[in-house]
Amino acid sequence: GVTTTVSNKHHHFGGRTLARAQALQLLFQAEATDRPVYEVLEGDYALSQGPLDPFGEMLARGADDMRHELDAVISATSSNWSVSRMPSVDRNLLRLALYEMLEVDEVAIAVTIDESVELAKSFGSDESPKFINGVLGRVASKMDKGEDVLTEAKRLEAERAAEQDAEDEPDDADGEAADAGDAADEGLGEE
N or C: more exposed end of the chain, with fewer CB within 10 A? Predict the structure, then answer.
């Protein structure tokens, strides 16, 4: 792990909190310019406070590579919101937090949730902290019960797609799943 002091009072954020804030900014810029994170990192990118922390870079790249799967988890968990209609900050904060909860074992889930709620207070709207806390809390309780949230979300997504297809055109029920898989594979060959 990367150790950085959190005691630096001059900065709003320090250590991993700063790294997460940087990762959020990278995801935000990638989405705004419709590019993968690795392309944003190859060009000019803006951070409110640099240099880029390796932990932040790892989170941004990881969450971006798994964006399709993470969005499926968000959809499965926030029943009344479609991912595309969420505010950009909320959507990208959830992607980052879920990536960390699912893939970064050295950080406790409770810590990830607390940190994400703090970032929501700094970057999001008045509703963001409560919303982020609610979605992440529901995912955490599923994980506590030993549920495989990624597999479960994929299954739900496939069911929804099948229902959608049944409404649209009865003949063709398997068109969408193939596209979804391809989208998830983009952006893995950059190293």
Answer: C
Phi, psi of 151 (to 5 degrees): -65, -40
Count the Cβ atoms, other than its own, within 10 Å of residue 15.
Answer: 17
H helices then E strands: how many in the chain?
9, 0
Backbone dihedral region for residue 45 (phi beyond 0: left; psi -120 to 50: alpha; all else: beta): beta
Tokens 């990192």 correspond to what residue? 41
100: which residues sit within 8 A by CB, 6+ positions away? 20, 59, 107, 112
Q: Report the C-alpha gap between 48 and 22 in whole angstroms.
A: 8
In this structure, which amino acid lies at residue 170?
P
Q: Is the preceding omega at residue 170 within 30 degrees of 0, hence cis?
A: no
Rounded Cα distance between 164 and 75, Å, is: 15
Residue 161, token pair as written in the block: 């797609």
Q: Is 149 exposed, middle or buried (0-12, 13-18, 19+ CB in 10 A)?
A: buried
SS3 63: helix
> What are the pLDDT digits (tens) for 38-92?
999 999 899 999 899 999 999 999 999 999 999 999 999 987 678 888 899 999 9
Q: What is the pTM of this model?
A: 0.79
> What b-and-e string marks burial along 154-173, b requiring 16 or more CB atoms within 10 Å of the CB?
beebeeebeeebeeeeeeee
